[in-house]
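batch job 7 of whatever, protein = S-adenosylmethionine uptake transporter
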Amino acid sequence: MTFRQALALPKNNMVLSGILLMLLGDFMFALNDAMGKWLVESFSVGQVLFIRSIGAFIILGPMIYRQGLGPLTNVERPGLQVLRVVLATADTAFFYAAVAYLPLADVMTFYMAGPIYIAALSHFFLGEKVGWRRWLAIVLGFCGVVIALRPSTASLSWPSLFAVVGSMSFAISLILSRKLRATNDTTLVTWQTVGALIMGGVLAASDWQPASAIDWSAMLLLGVVACAAHLLITRALKLAPASLLAPLQYTLLIWAVVMGIAFFGDYPDAQILIGSAIIVIAGLFIFHRQKVVDKAEPETVPTSVH
């Protein structure tokens, strides 16, 4: 279905299509995360990142050809564009570094705090007004992160810190995406992918492992799946209100638990479940207040491409 055909649909059908595309996009992101975890158990983060980025161009290539090279070189605010690419690359690299050692559900718990970080940072970097109710939810959400993090000398680990730093990089990159909203999606994703390609090549240079045809195919497919997920969510946001779609991102946590158990035998412990529940409740309340007070915009929905 083309976007023009979608516009001809009755409003209710458009909204339903948006919801279904959002759910499918979230599933694709969860599948991407599970595939990434499987691959980084055998290959370095850099190698996976490098080949994955090449795979992403299977989808990006025709899109770049259709729009031409002009939009890629003539971008607004080049300094912020570079900073966004650096942070988006850090987000992906730290995510893979974390899932190499932690269960999917644990890592996704930290990433589900993204909307909480965004709400807090928007006040300082975008000048957006955040009322006391949302500040209370932000504090509650941070408490959930602390519970999940297990901040003791005996249990605090580097992989957990990778997940926290990655999720914060993710949140700040989304803040920058709001500032760069005049830049089209293809351009943003292309430069983000180029950044990951360069970083992956640098990291993989000293730790390149031989791989089978199946492994190469899986790493290329990883890029295709991630790009497809991003495009599905972008299209969903054109068909249904962001305030309706935003809470659906928490299905990622459900899929992370299911895939973690099914593919890796990882069962989340009580502390992760309690922390994630607090984060989800705080995040849903923030989305609700954004809808009531700020008329939430599409940029409030995280569309990271891990």
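notes: The chain has one domain: 15-300.
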